[in-house]
Protein 1
Amino acid sequence: MTPERFAELSELAADGSLSAAEDAELGAHIAADPAARAALRQCLREHLQCRAALRMGDRPQLAARIGQLLQARRPSRRQRAARTVLERIEHRRARRLRVLRWGLPALAALLAVALLPLLGRGAAPAADPATPRVVAGEARLAGGILTRAGQELARGATLETAAGTCEIAWPDGTTVRLGAATRVARPDADGQRLTLERGSLAVHAAHREAGDPLRIACPDAEAAIVGTRFDLAVAEGGSVLQVQDGLVRWTRLADGVAGVVGAGQRVAASALPLPRAVLLDARRIAALRQAVATSRAPWASAWASLRRADPGAEGSGWQGALGLALAARLEPDDAQGGALAVAAVQRVRVLVAAPPPGPSGREGAATLIRAAVAADLLRLTPAWQAADGAALDLWLADALPGVVRHQAAAPAAGDRWWGVAASLAVAARAGDTPRMRALFADLRRELAVDLAPGRRERLRPADLVPALLAADIMHASAGACPPPPPAWREVLSAWAGSPDAAGLPLRGAPPWRLPDAPAGVVGGGGWPHPVLTGLAPEDP
Amino acid sequence: MNPGPDDLAPEACDALALRAQAGDREAFSALVVALYPQLTGFLAFHAPSADLADEVAQATLVMAFERIADYQPRGTFAGWLKGIARNLLLRELSRRAHQRGAVESMLAADALAAVEQEPDGAPDEDLLARLRACIGRLPPRARLIAQRRFAEDVPLNQLAQQFKRTRASMAKVIHLLRGQLRACVESGGTHP
């Protein structure tokens, strides 16, 4: 491993954001080289020491934080009294269990009825923000005590539903609904945490700081949530997460392998790690939904165009399938999104059953890219089946050689690059990163030649689109993208303001896109996919 | 934990601990504020990750608050607090040594062995103060990078974007920056 790569991975380790592949790469390196392991330890130690050094100065702020912490921790007198009595009951119950096993349920129920008013009124609104309360429905605590609305779920307590459901809520608005036959425990730990032992939960997490996620542990995996809605179920086959809105970091406990699951996706812990996205990963989809929800231009108008265009109309081919798939993932309404996903999957099945496209210019290559992206968007929706993926792979395998041969022989550079972009999308779908790197390196070399003065005049702005798409696919699927040739930015900037570039998705994150391109470049009422798939909405 | 220049004397700690035991939460807060730099210094030395250091620091304060009645005032409050932190750290490290990804598991195992072998190991008493002074003497751009990276926890990817660099080159810059700070601290804070 080069020192540069080691420094990069060390910094990612300090962030706690190593991907599974990076973790394996760095793990293998430090396992084989004790000096590297020591160097990594030193790097992380120095990182933490710098962090501690810069945070030690603000004592008033620290005092305020400690005050808040203690306020949240302080049990009321009434709660302390109730806890003491409960401990006594528990003690007596254990003693009597030996001689009076049959009499306990009635005794516990009687005592619980006497204690519940104390528990329920004990905490004022300023109580521990990490303590949830029962707000609706019915469940039993571990001792068989029936809960009631307003009752706190103390640290270490367990809650169990029978045939009905029960809802608990935290003061920040986070709610968790327990399905029937569900058992959850609140661990003796800080923060909003629950352990789902069996059954199912529907969670609506209020937004909070990134460092303070709601954590829900299952027997084989843990979900960490910043602010979102999702369902979580534990069955004999393992834990399954389904996200309605936002993002959830889903970690398998056995090996620490994690993935970010986004709106509309459903992932079993056993399916981790998630393959990389072809073009639009869960974070990008979440950012797009946010941009649409906050009416940010140009995403909101592109979304409106997409809905007006009726992509589900017959005859719209893969473009329509991609439109439906995008709409399914962007639709804020769960039921509507689910229906769109079903329609999109059905459309894909029809298209895959038809013969693949012939070698017909740019459109053939664009079709393959649309197919790969549409399938990727639908891959983790509940409607998508494993057989759909297999059928699509066969279809792509049939289509790709003809399209690529035709494009490679095309005289126009832009046509050839479309062929490369299609190959790249298919390789991304297969997770073939070495092939992607090789394809992209070839494309980059060709670009460098064709952007040279004297040759660049033959290019048109639209010729750059496949290169932009290819760079986006590299970013999303390979995790990194080599920088463009030096002349790239110069040419792109020169074209950004020209009428020829109108409608092209040139604006976005550097270095391949222009962060400051005029908004008009991405305006227009054309087909909205380039805007929704090509522009980075992550930055406000 | 060794007392730093701004820390309370053991007798003053005990006086505050006695008031805290009687229910005076401001006394407890004052005690913790005074000892917090030592606590974070201890955790920064031993914990392999920021989230673990933060988690243990907070759990230590909570446990100290809940168990303040158990403390016997013999001028050892700082050691008592460190004992809580060490036990919590050991517990969490042994959990992480078996449950996390490859790198974190190995680092947790190393840290576990180090804490068990050298339970009182800690940085120099004024290391953090020297480090802070060294960061303060960095050139403006390097100081800004240090502020973003260490005080504001800006991740590498975002930092690279903010400073218009690639991720790899940003990592290299941070690596060099830490080397500079190491040299400064080792020289007693006299340069750069």
Protein 2
Amino acid sequence: MNAFAADMQRWVDLLTKLTHTDPASPAFHPMLQSLRESFASQLEVWLRSMHPFAAYFAVPPQPSTQFAPHGDGVGPRADSSRAASLLSDWIRLQSQLAVHWTTIARTAAETFMARTCELTASGKLPDAQKLFAVWIDCAEEAYSRTAHSQTFARLVSDFINTAVAIQLQGRRVRTRPKKIRGKPRVRGKRRR
Amino acid sequence: MNASFDNFAALWQTISARAMANGGSLYGAPREIGGCSARDAVWTKDKAVLYRYLPLPGVRSARVRPVLICYALVNRPDVLDLRPGRSMVQGLLAHGLEVYLLDWGRPDPADRSLELADYMERYLDGAVQHLLEARRLRSLNLLGVCQGGTFSLCYCALHPGHVANLVTMVTPVDFQTPEDLLSKWARGLDTEAIRQSGNLPGMALTGMFLSLRPFRLLLQKYVGLLEQSRDTEALDTFLRMEQWIFDSPDQAANALAQFIRWFYQENRLVRDTLEINGRRVALGKIRQPVLNIYAGRDHIVPAAASTALGQHLRTSDYREVQVDTGHIGIYVSRDSQHSVAATIASWLLERS
């Protein structure tokens, strides 16, 4: 929560600084340019770390603990190979998602720049809170364009499917050693 | 310049501290908010509980059949009774309606094999049968909300004699409309793997819902809170909503896999290919009066996904009502609580 508050405060400070600068002054446009870069990078970081489904499904089990053969080391090689393949898929999908986050962040920042310039030209530059709402609109629009695309929808499904498969594989490996070792057989009658 | 926005971080800390002191939680483990209206449990089956809400003092009975609310599996029904002044249940009670609610409970690993048929034929039908017997009635009024509306449509088609009038609220019917983002994301999911992996944690589902509009739901909402931060009632409503949002129950694996596949991926309800317990569910068999209430700005169940119902029913008594709000606002906004409850009550009264 503190991290969230600090991030938000940075955004607010940037917006406030902009709204306190005279649009006619030579400092205004360079400041807007630097805001664009900073907004884009902050948004990208936010998407990478905070995006809700990515955050939930993006924590793969640690290969060293969950996928390694357990106990006596008799774990089937097929398990390791399958685990490696899933992890490689997962990393590939993560990097594909990252490309989309970059696109969304850049598009949002570009649109925000354009809208802020329009507002400035018409002499209607709002206060920081309203400007923040404009920024959110731009971010949602950029996100929506990407999120509705077939490529992104497929990526979301693949991402979740891979995360679920990793989970299932981890469970399979964890339960396998018992099957391999088997329970000690008791010959003769059971003691009561 | 709004002074509170200038000092966002400090104010956020104050709000958080107050939330914690009040036992609320913005990000921590949520506590069930329960409801604000008095109610009695009148029937149970496994984890499902049928509640009867007590009439409001001084309100005369409208003398219409009881209204049974069938809510979704994906969230807790507490949102229908969030707090006084923000309660759909109280809105209905204020019109003299006799209100019942079927609470599905919270599935645990023992419920992973439950099927959609169990929810519809064991729990919903069980609650309906109990109510009909207890009240010596042949039929009741069914009010289905969101996914519960989809179940209510199926139930109505399978047991037409038990339902006198059907009300659906923000109910998905066509699961593949162009604006339906959730549907686009769900179409490629491996439902067999989902079934095998066990119950889906509620947080995963919450994450999916928040992902539909992440900036509004995870950033702007909290900034918007600044405007209400000194309004105790608004803050209380906000915290209750937060608790509710982050309190999605786990989803029974088998039923969830069936729901994704049959509805989102195969769109069986509108393609007339849905079967529950081997019995075909045909929307065309619904001849009861149907009131379909949907939200014009719904990002979870787009308006077109709900209004598709009109094209598939054969009833001569079908009415659609659009409410200018979002998926959640339809239950909790002050305006819609009054207008939606009044619409439902008057529509039922006209058909009593």
